[in-house]
Design brief:
The protein is 36% helix and 18% strand. By secondary structure, the protein is of the alpha+beta class.
């Protein structure tokens, strides 16, 4: 029964998110008649996150999450686009010239969408969609340092990719494409490989929590600038990484990772082999009666269509809320895949494996930001918005 409930819960979230995206698309289309305007108002009310999450912090977290998605019509298809994952220090090992993602993986969603939309309106993107709709199978080659793409129609390149012999390099990912049209994953590849546009895991967590703090009347950047080491005129987001979330700063509150202790806006930290933290995510909600945790993250070690910003779930037995997140009885739904088919696979099958990994260094942990906790108190009590 628990699995049925949570599957239904996830489906409702997806449907209403899609309706919300459709409403936004229509809102910027042609002028509407009064009758049509009423229909759009009703659709907007249906897509309101408050219908699912109420008026508390869960709603605010959902609002923040939706800032990383937009809807566009591309090649006659309505597409729900997400901001890609951006981290280059694992892809620049073979390049001589320095290069990096726009905004260093820390830019705000508003900043990124402005540049994404400019790129999607470009002649280069038009040529890209034309090439992917030609009806001929091909290999698309992205060159990240030069922010260019090329096409190979060489039968040997295509045959090698079909047979699983990947020809790409970290900074030159290769994609085998049918030539039968463009989908969201193709748009993602262009934004990532040509635009160098995206956000990293800790940048995503920072902007989500900044939105929550603002809803509670707190400027998170100003509050934590000194603790982060940001000087006057510097954007604190640039300094908000997993090392800060894992620090002994008095602004960071450690949380025992039993499920009963978890709260929305808590930060999940995933350990790396060097003992530091290599990944961060943020909890959006915990349903203690249904036994499900929904958390939000940005990573490209994900199913092809979910790379970038996406949500994930943890199932637990509601009768045992005292279990640790490291307990193997929990079911973490998020499976881990290589960013591009053929690249080196993740050593972890799913997020649960990753959270439990490197136990000799302490494994995963949970923390919360003190300033965000104060903001949440105000939000949940009906305070500042």
């Amino acid at each position: 029964m628990m699995r049925i409930k949570t599957t239904f819960f996830k489906s409702i979230v997806s449907v209403r998110f899609t309706v919300m995206a459709f409403v936004l698309l229509l809102a910027f289309s042609a002028p509407l008649s009064p009758a049509e305007g009423g229909d759009i108002s009703r659709l907007a009310a249906f897509s309101d996150p408050g219908r699912i999450w109420g008026s508390g912090v869960e709603r605010v977290l959902e609002e923040a999450y939706r800032l990383f998605f937009q809807t566009r019509i591309i090649e006659g298809r309505v597409m729900n686009l997400r901001i890609p994952f951006a981290m280059n220090y694992e892809r620049d090992t073979l390049t001589e010239e320095p290069w990096g993602f726009v905004g260093g993986g820390k830019a705000s969603p508003a900043f990124l969408w402005e540049r994404i939309n400019t790129l999607l309106d470009s002649e280069d993107f038009r040529k890209y969609t034309e090439a992917l709709s030609s009806g001929r199978e091909k290999v698309i080659i992205f060159d990240l340092p030069s922010q260019t793409w090329t096409v190979s129609l060489d039968p040997f390149d295509i045959a090698r990719m079909r047979a699983g012999f990947y020809q790409g390099l970290p900074h030159r990912p290769h994609v085998l494409h049918s030539g039968r049209g463009v989908d969201e994953a193709d748009v993602y590849n262009f934004l990532f490989g040509v635009g160098l546009l995206g956000i990293d895991c800790s940048g995503f967590v920072w902007h989500v929590l900044s939105h929550v703090a603002a809803a509670g009347g707190i400027d998170l950047g100003r509050t934590l600038a000194a603790a982060l080491g940001a000087r006057a005129g510097q954007d604190p987001a640039w300094f908000a990484g997993t090392s800060f979330f894992n620090s002994r700063s008095p602004h960071v509150i450690p949380v025992h990772d039993e499920i009963r202790n978890l709260r929305p806006a808590d930060i999940l930290l995933f350990r790396s082999g060097d003992g530091g933290m290599g990944h961060a995510a943020v909890i959006q909600s915990i349903d203690f009666s249904a036994g499900v945790i929904r958390y939000l993250q940005c990573t490209d070690e994900a199913p092809w269509a979910q790379r970038g910003v996406h949500d994930s779930f943890i199932y637990f037995d509601p009768a045992f809320p005292n279990v640790s997140l490291s307990d193997p009885s929990l079911v973490w739904t998020k499976q881990r895949y290589p960013p591009f088919p053929g690249e080196r696979a993740s050593p972890f099958t799913n997020d649960g494996d990753r959270f439990r990994a490197f136990a000799e260094h302490g494994g995963g942990r949970v923390v919360r930001l003190r300033a965000v906790s104060q903001a949440i108190e105000r939000i949940n009590s009906g305070g500042v918005r």
